[in-house]
């Protein structure tokens, strides 16, 4: 029995001498590819046609493939983290075989093959012979092309692993490739590439089908948002528009061609499924062959009226989205799934995330999802003086202390009875206050300062902080028992720089500022390159500043230079012509909201000081 190397050697000799290749010597997809190359008149000992686009042509192709390029670039960064140090180059090529982006590691970059795989180089099989990128595009399947399996002898010192990426309509969108000069046939790398390709495909699917109803489905809840989740979209009439590869295999045995009725796939009516769209409930659905799936909705396909009119007989499990915030990012979605699974059992939630990542908005989401009829009561634990904390939270009896209101106060905990108590900046709570809070969380009993009477309250507790609580515990600034009591369900919010729904967020926030404002894709792309230490709040502020720079035209690259060129909001505002505009905006808002400075500052994404500065008195 010949070894793999021996067999390849024999096949190679036959190839170079123009003989007929024995299909048993090498993998069929390699021999098929060699035969295609021979039919095109390529010579294995000759040189490949090293096509390379000009910078302008490359720019043009990047623009044309902007969406897939962007999703691929972000996956490549993630992949790079995983294989950094192992001398690999990762490349993404579009459907025309043009390398749009590369990320490389170690010496490979300066090696001969490393220098050949450049942005703008074209790796079609018909030009460069059998190669992972070109051949994967040709056969629409993932594959490894190892050393001498490359058609041209000149490429025999490299191993390549490639996985194709498809648009939601099944058309090829590109190929993700990892190349290395390592000799090992490392199939683990191919699996990594396939997973990354699926991530790109899923992002494309969600974006390309966002005008339709998209169902994310899986038999297991915890895998809903993983690469093994199925995606299927339906138009407003309940006709199937698209389905991804995983969805196809989960529903195998059923017809999933475009145009198929929802009812020909699932055992309930489309109207019933829609019934859960607006009410924040994740249903389970059964297909016509009896398999059951947990389902999450995405997209915006149907009118509100239709959603409300639909009845619901689907087995319901708690929650999903409340209007007013964007949550297309997979990491955020995972956290929302946690919320929906837990909220009915009323555990304390602890939201962790950098400043401005949307902790309060998620707390409000938890409140909405809980279906509780009481109030949402926010408490800024960092801003309350230590001595007043208990009085503010638990109330005080009439005349309890100097300066107290004459008739006393029932306190914020009782104000939240039947609703949600949101303990913001919990990491900044002084230690003595932490003890009082812990006591409260044990019993849910409130005794006002200066009073002997206790009241039982029913509150959903949600804490939030941007403080690293584990370090705070180590430094004895935060009690570990409070951490465990509060953090029964911990939610980690991704910072803006890691969010994969940056464009959707930007467009949503812009729409909130002014529905008439538009922004070009490349301007969004340029914004996405920034670090955003202030996260979503900083983005909102930047968008507000950008909105001041445009009149009729959409926000574009040129405005980015003006934005990032300026030091800060004030500098921008002071610059010619803008001062009058911002004064008008601020004062118009103040007029409509009854001179509410905080609300105005929040709505415009600027500080209260800036509002005061430009307020007409
Ligand atoms: N997912 C989202 N979609 C749209 N807007 C969002 C989203 N998350 C947050 N925002 C907006 O970003 C801004 C900051 O959000 P929020 O106040 O909830 O952050 P935070 O983490 O509580 O901030 P801090 O740590 O400073 O208290 C708000 O204007 C909010 O409306």
Automatic annotation (TrEMBL):
Cross-referenced CDD domains:
AAA (cd00009)
InterPro entries found in the cross-reference section? AAA+_ATPase, AAA_lid_NorR, GAF, GAF-like_dom_sf, Homeodomain-like_sf, HTH_Fis, P-loop_NTPase, Sigma_54_int
Q: Which PROSITE patterns match?
A: SIGMA54_INTERACT_1, SIGMA54_INTERACT_2, SIGMA54_INTERACT_4
Is the keyword DNA-binding assigned to this protein? yes
Q: Which UniProt keywords apply?
A: Activator, ATP-binding, DNA-binding, Nucleotide-binding, Transcription, Transcription regulation, Two-component regulatory system
> Sigma-54 factor interaction domain location, by residue?
325-548
Organism domain of life: Bacteria
Q: What's the protein name?
A: Sigma-54-dependent Fis family transcriptional regulator
Organism of this sequence: Devosia salina
